[in-house]
Amino acid sequence: STASREDTDEMADPPSAGELSEQQQLIDVNPPRGTRDFPPEDMRLRNWLFGHFREVSRILSFEEVDFPVLESESLFIRKAGEEITQQLYNFEDKGGRRVVLRPEITPSLARLVIKQGKSVSLPLKWFTIGQCWRYERMTRGRRREHYQWNMDIFGVSKVRAEAELIHAIVLFFERLGITSSDVGIRVSSRKVLQAVLQMYCIPEKIFAEVCVIVDKWGKITKEEVEKELSLAGVTPEAVKGIVEVLSLKSLDKLEEVLGSDGEAVADLKKLFELAEQYGYSQWLTFDASIVRGLAYYTGVVFEAFDREGKLRAICGGGRYDRLLSTFGSDDIPACGFGFGDAVIVELLKEKGLLPDLMRQVDDIVFPLDEELDGQASKIATALRQKGRSVDLVEEKRLKWVFKHAERINASRLVLVGNSELQRGMVRVKVLSTREEYEVKIGELS
Ligand SMILES: Nc1ccc(Br)nc1
Predict the structure, then answer these.
(1) Which residue out of 101, 138, 144, 149 has the highest number of ligand 1 atoms within 8 Å of its CB and is therefore the one to mutate?
(2) ipTM surpassing 0.95, yes or no?
(3) What letter would DSSP give residue 215?
(4) Does the beta carbon of 84 lie inside 6 Å of ligand 1?
(5) pLDDT, block means (10 residues), the chain with 445 residues
(6) How far is the CA of 53 from the centre of ligand 1 (A)?
(7) How many beta carbons lie within 10 A of that of residue 184, not counting itself?
(8) Close Cβ partners of 136 (under 8 Å, ≥ 6 residues apart)
(9) Closest ligand 1 atom, CA of 142?
């Protein structure tokens, strides 16, 4: 016989376009280009990931904050040629205001710190998980949104802040089963590049632009980097000096080039000493080519990478001591990182570490006869008030209910039947042990 719809759990085929009248044309059920839906299975993974973000933030004693996804465009207008500012998801709203879907979170954090002003005592340790956007020509077919975990410390000028943030990143990886054999964290400081530019009397005003160009090292050819540096106003000998320093992979070598009295070497030495004490130095590696691509970094910068070299940077961050003054406020030393929700999932897949997250329900309550739907509602209410998750099912055959119970990993099946109700009872099946018993309705827990 043909199974009726309530017997199967497959959706009927949607009507074909020809079966719909003009105004009933099926809408495009896909989300806008470059964006994602999160159906239950994907949402379980996302909640699992964000749960670890939150737990690590709690363990590091960070407070959660949040901001509108929509921000004034003025927060992100920067002249250093960053990709992030060239791909702003910007528009004019109905009030004629220039607004954006934020491409990153740090400027919002800075805005709130300024807004809070004297009402907050430093240091501040804030975290947030928020959706960020870019408008990229779909030629590269890349996503236009992702969720980013940000942790930021305001008011700590010493590298203790960087050490704390890196500790958070290491703890997060360890919670997911990722080890320092899978992932490393490259560390350097923009003060390295700053020192080199000073050695060659390159004006400070092009520092941010030079950093954005140097960040392309390894992504575009050496010749292209040199050409862009030259166009930015860096002399040929300074370009040579920069290229030489970028290849340094040891602090000792760096010290030979920059001398031992500079801030860059001192900061990095202190950070690596602290790393030993935290017990995570096996994750760290000094790499002078790391500058990160955001204009506002001023000091230590770091990024996590997969040692097999198959993926883009997993997360990254650094010190940005001068960002607040670009918004007209007094500066407050600051340091933070962003951790996207996409590359980490690719890494977990690579390492076979994706968790198997099942839907789980405590009880299915099922009236065996239609007229018992009221009794079933009472029983569901009593159980829910005790905090049990209850799936109240009706208009189904018992065979379907057993299959459904298996599908949603229900712990118990509570059957509401006339004969039991006559005696003030319901029948309970414990699905894991097949144990079956009757219990007084008032004693069901
Ligand atoms: N900044 C940014 C925003 C959105 C995506 Br997807 N990637 C980077």
Answers:
(1) 144
(2) yes
(3) T
(4) yes
(5) 47 64 85 97 98 98 98 96 96 98 98 95 98 87 94 98 99 98 98 95 95 94 95 95 92 94 96 98 97 97 98 98 97 98 98 97 97 97 98 95 97 97 97 96 93
(6) 18
(7) 18
(8) 34, 87, 142, 144
(9) 6
